[in-house]
Amino acid sequence: MSAQPSPEETAPYGTGAAKPASPAKRVRTHHLREMKERGERFAMLTAYDQYTAQTFDEAGIEVLLVGDSASNNVLGNETSLPVTVDELLPLTRAVARSAHRALVVGDLPFGSYQGSPEQAYDTAVRFMKEGGAHCVKLEGGTEMAPQIERLTRGGVPVMAHIGFTPQSEHTLGGYRVQGRGESAQRILDDAKAVQAAGAFAVVMEMVPGDVAGEVTRELAIPTIGIGAGNQCDGQVLVWQDAFGLRTGRMARFVKQYADVHAVLLEGAREYAADVRAGTFPGPEHTF
Ligand code: KIV
Prior knowledge:
By secondary structure, this protein is an alpha/beta fold. About 40% of the residues lie in helices and about 15% in strands. The protein is built from twelve helices and eight strands. Strands 1-2-3-4-5-6-7-8 form an eight-stranded parallel beta barrel, surrounded by seven helices.
């Protein structure tokens, strides 16, 4: 008789995307609009992999963005500019497989949609077919209306992104608050243009709080702030900033809710010390 392997011998290193005991109702774009109408706020975070997606989904975060910020938070680049569609698609797929309730947003990277509405459509379709995203985000206001119209017409829900748009940092002259003084009208015009083109929501980044508040009141679609004060319908943060995996200087708009860097550092040091002292693995870890 052949011996059956014990569960310990067969347990894999990871378990793949966990299946929930009772599937939660998926957050849809219309739910966000209904929340706005009821005066309820919602939370969005970035996620780039299986376990963060599962954890944030379990925490009830309504929207997960597989941001092009993966470029400078996962892939080691200095900015979001170098990341490609082929690099973002596997991350999007991992998040889409792992989040059972959250709306998953694929972020179109620099150069993959600005060329023409057809280019935008072809890229967005890849994010939905290959990445499993439920919708896409793109940066730009009035000038992106043709792209937003094309995607919406073709069955791709679009989240717009106005104010400071990191993909245009060289055009905007660096990381700067947008919409101060006279340029406030530009923010309002951009917001109205993306809504008219069919966007289901709009991110506003680094915009004065009172301007973001006015946009939020003027629009029927939800607004999502990052550095745009507390009058938006939702808020978004990059998770490595919010939970302290990244260290160093943070933007003023970041609130740090945890210190993951310190926890990992301590754990890694203890592990190394155990290995060097010969106390790991112990008898309980040995077959
Ligand atoms: O890529 C990203 O993380 C973003 C957020 C900052 C909104 O676009």
